[in-house]
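Hi Q.,

Before the meeting this afternoon, I wanted you to have the 2M8 prediction in hand. No need to reply - just skim if you have a minute. The sequence and ligand are here:
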Amino acid sequence: VESAVQPRSLPSLAYDGACRVLSGNWTGSSTVPSRALYPHQWSWDSGFIAIGLRHVSPARAQRELETLFAAQWADGRVPHIVFNPEIPLGAYFPSPDFWRSSAAGDKAGAPASVETSGVVQPPVHALAAWLVHQADPAASARRGFLRRLYPRLVAWQRYLTGPRDLGGHGLAAIVHPWESGMDNSPCWDPPLARISPAASGSFHRADLDHGCRADRPTDLDYGRYVRLAGSYRDRGYEDRPGTHPFAVEDPAFNALLIASEYALADIAAALGDEAADPAEHLVRAESLTWALVSRLWSEEEGLFLCRDVLADERLPQRSAAGLLPLVLPGLPEEVAAALLRTARGPHFGLGGPARLVPSYDLTGSGFDPARYWRGPAWFNVNWLLERGMRLHGADLTADALRAEMLRAAVASDFAEYVDPFSGKARGTRDFSWTAALTLDLSL
Ligand code: 2M8
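Predicted structure with the ligand bound:
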């Protein structure tokens, strides 16, 4: 007897579940990463979200990025959070009264009409804009999507290669762990140790009202995040070299900067006019790739390492951030091959003990399979690696990773992150970028 209920395939389960999460998290002009834990708009989240949304609604995906860029500062920076004025101040910390961005307007040119944070996040946006455009080029052209966004994307990239080139070798430096998006990565432990934490009673961690303490950064980390962000604010969010107590060149941040520079070349070519020169972006992408390899590549480790700009030394911690330059087309082939070996080797365990690539070295003393960016596997990192594997011809590895990601996303209810060995859900559920990137892989 034929059963009336047909077994559902994994991609179709993933697609339907992801659509449900994304519509639940849509506010009307952008998507929150998570209703309870992150009730505002986050910068790199919106990039990843748009990449998935483009398959369901190219118009909504365009809107996601346009809403973010409406909060861009006059100096080109795209803030890491755009606050929703309808959400009570106590729902998330640090709230607008901490950042006071609209009051900083004169110096750095923060918009007066919207409240934002003052730090940034990895620049995935031009890549996202290009992928969104490609989902429906005719509709994108009708709305002038790329034409309107292109100058803003260029200003954003030039903020990073200009004022943020604190090391003086072309790469962008992050000035706060939040800017890496990998907030409590063990890579930040040595440079953060120099920062004296804000007093624990001076702020309230709203994240602990929604998240499990063992899955989140420690109070000591938070004290240091607050100290660094507060002192940046008190200096008017200025980026003069020598003024930042924390400055690090991060390979993941810079890999996305370069991938976005390549995307700007594609966008410039699609616009096809004199104001937009593809060659200029390609030249810049190549010279940044060269700077990345010469500054951050470690041949002994087969991995890119972070560089502490203030101490002028490479940090020895092995993080998944060091694998992400695999997304770059201009990487020397021997470097790409070494990165693939490292992903499968003892430190990241792909195809061995790890089902998904962990955020941090499985053998490292700072490794913790549950705690945020100190070990759990994240879907944006794995999505980028899957893409990089295909780019460098490792299709079988990419196929296996894709299947694991779909399985883990569905089984974990689109968790924020998962235990890299078991795939067990960690952090919040119904997390937007997990849904969006799973949706992208399901097709
Ligand atoms: C996490 O970071 C925020 C601060 O920006 C937090 O912990 O409150 C990170 O995982 C970051 O990468 C992400 O963009 C953000 C929102 O999903 O949450």
